[in-house]
Design a protein that fits this description.
The chain is mainly alpha-helical. It has three helices and no strands. The protein has two domains: 64 residues; 38 residues.
Length: 102
């Protein structure tokens, strides 16, 4: 008897080989498949993030003029106040002319 066979019975070697074959035939391909699936998912996320970044830049470019709208609203308020003043003066003139015409 050799010293190895006395330490490890043949059943241990058989189970070890079965485990090694199952690992190489089942678990390694499954791990490769899952890693490839993960890689595809990561690539999709990168593509979607790039598209979102492009859209975000477009939104930022289009909303850059929003502060100008605030000044437009302020100017419109000033124009409205001036128009109300002119309308009031025109009403006064119309009343005076209507009074003189009687």
């Amino acid at each position: 008897m050799s010293p190895d066979s006395a330490t490890f019975p043949p059943l241990v070697f058989t189970l070890w080989w079965i485990g090694l074959v199952v690992t190489l035939v089942v678990f390694v391909p499954m791990a490769v498949y899952q890693l490839h699936s993960l890689w595809r998912t990561v690539r999709s996320i990168q593509i979607y993030a790039r598209d979102a970044l492009t859209a975000t830049k477009g939104i930022a470019g289009h909303t850059a003029h929003v502060p100008a709208l605030d000044s437009t609203i302020q100017v419109a308020g000033d124009v409205l106040a001036a128009a109300e003043s002119v309308a009031s003066k025109l009403d006064t003139i119309a009343n005076v002319l209507a009074t003189r015409a009687r």
